[in-house]
Predict the structure.
Amino acid sequence: MHFSNEFLCVAHVVIFSIAMTFLAELEQDPFDGEEFIERLAWRATNGKFDDVDLISEAFENGIKDLKAIYDTNQKKCERLEMICREEEKGHWIKVTELQQKCKDSLATFEKLDKRLDIVADKVVYLGEQLEGVNTPRMRAVEAQKLMQHFARYLETPSETLNSFEELYIENVNQLFEEADIIQKLYLISQELPNNSKFDKAKEFISKKYNLIEKRLIEEFSQAQKNDDRNKMKKIASMLSHFKGYSQCVDMGMFLGENIFNDIVPLCVKNQKTIKEVFTNPEQVMSKFVLNIFHGKIQEFIQARINENDTREFLTELYTLFHKTNKLIEQIAKLKFLGCDYNFLNKITRNIFNNYLDMYIQRETNYLRDKCAYILQSYYESKNHQKRPFTTGGFQELIQSKIGRTNINIGNLNINISNPDYTQGETFLSEEIAISILQETKMSLQRCHLLSKQQDIAQNALSIYEIELQSLCIEHIDYAIELGLQAIPSAETKSQPDIHFFDIIRQSNEICHLNEKQFVNWVLPLISSTTKYSECIKRKREVYQQMEAKLNQGLEKSIASIIGWIKYLLQNEQKKTDFKPEQENDDIITTSTIACNKVVKFINFYHNRITKCLDGKNVQDVLTDLGVKIHRTINEHLQQYQFNFMGAMVVICDVKEYRNCIDKFKIPLLSKLFNILHALCNLLIVVPENLKQVSNGDQLVSGEFRCMMALSNSIGENLAIINEKIKKAYDGVPNNPNKYPTLLAVSKIKSKELIIDAYQHGQRHFGENYIQELYDKANDPEVIAKCPEIKWHMIGHVQTNKINKLLEVCHLFNKPENEIELSMGMTTDFEHAIALGSTMVRVGTAIFGVPILQGLLVLRTCSWISSSNRSIGTDFFCGNNAQHNGVANVKLKSNQ
């Protein structure tokens, strides 16, 4: 088929137009193929998309067009690649030509280099020969010149020598010539013998030497003022051979009053000058800095430090040493010539060495005297004369028994009270503590800076030891001792005013401040050294000593509180309160006067304790106090008999006690007083309903069920328990354990009950309180009737009563194969034996509870005739009430 040229041109134009349209769409960034197809279909169908054949034809034409575009571009790429290959070939030809030219140039350069070496060798040889000839000639000329000048000086008459006081030099060049000659003549004159022949010449040379040196220094100073550094450089070079060269170095040391602020800018300024002027700038700069430190700074330090006033001495030493260290750090950072940190630090140590050698001795002496002065001033402000304490003596023994009073024994007047104690004064002060801590803190700061690295830990320990001695022992411990002596005795006849709780509060606060300072200032200085364990041990010893005395004071304070409660109950409570002679039908809803006073007293000290103690200490002390209050009220109620109206009164009283104790927020105490209140309610229950009422919520405990079963004698109870022990032991197949020992818990039991149990075969008895154990073990009747009795201590051990315990108990240092496994009590001893127990502790099931013995009798009597009821002891102080000794108070400490 043949097409005309016009048709082909039109076809090419159409194809080109389509190709340009396609190219514009294909070159979009980013390219979306789906969108391209959508546009192609839309153009073919005018947006209707209802003609499939038309769309298919459009797609086929589009594919043909794209193929045509591809073929066209492929041909263009081939043509461009051919052009690039031709250009690359031409470039390679040029590179080959250039490489050949480079080789030729290199060969020519090597030839020239060899020729230059030959010529240079000849020149050097010629120069050496010329120098060999010229140097002796120059030396000879110079020697001739020196000899001529020296001969002239030898011939100088004495009148000229005496009148020679000033130089007459017209310009600097002449000065330099004269300086060069006189300096050499001066060196020669020093080698001449001491002979009258040369004396005049030597004297003349020395005078002229000094005058020229002085003139050179003046010229250097003038050049420095004019900032003529070229002239300064020439003069410095000439002066380097003179003795006064150091004056030239020191010329820049013009400092103001604030010397430490002026030195760094001065060094920066002079370093630039020194680099330009001197031929050896590093040596000159180090000499300049050395002269500043050993000159200006040392003079400044000596003028400021006053060794007669220790406080001023330590303060100024710390301030100046700190400023000097800061100065050398600034100089080291600027990296001055020849001035590194080690060099500057060594200079500083040399300057302060005389002061630092005696630093720690003066520091500790000052701190010790200052703390003593602070304490003495405080006690003088309180009109108190501090005195030493002696413990364990006759006076302390009497005071512990009868309290603070005066005793006359014959003509001997013994004053048991503390005459130095002012009522309400604790002799503790947070302000004094802060003053001591502040002084110690400043000492530790000085110690850290002024001590040698290897001595920091030891010096810090010495300072902290003074702090412990002054603050903890001389102040806190002394106040605790005074407070101990001021605590009223348990047999006081007036309401006790106990301020020992305030001492505890203040001691705790001061120890908290001390602990905070220890962590912030002492610990960082000793933490990574061998002194750490020594310091911690010493601190722990001091704290434990104070804690032991605080615990002793708490015990005495609680004993005093309990003593006053007993006194109120004994003197304010009347028998008619619980057994009125005339009964009426009115319901009694008020408590007795004695109860109201006791509750008011308890509330007062409850508030004081919660205010003065914190954390677990409050809970422990209130628990101990509450248990002892419970025991006191329990023992008090046992002394009375009740009729119906009296029972109502005692229920009201116990309710008031319970409400008071509930404020303590101690679950154990609430439970104890709830049980006490529930038991008191039994006093108004008719005998027929007693068993039913005893199953109430408060009376279903194992202890009560045991007491319900214990209307037997002690012998019968022991037989029943031993039978249960045997049955429980035999119930374990092939039991590998030894046969269990029955330990009768006899706390707060009378000696008659103990003797009764002993006579029925019981040999092992356990006590919860050391004092009670000691009294029973040394009772003559018990010793006589119970020769083989074995005592056991099963309660908490108090440090101050340990000696009494050692006299009684015998189970110390037992062989390992004889060690007992003691577990199991009244309600669970059978289960404990099955688990391997070799010793069970039983009290209630042996000795019983008096209240039930009284209540069981009521079953055969009418209510009207059953007015004699008593509240027992053991139940209220049974397993739920075991709390022995005051809780250990812990001072605030992070260690």
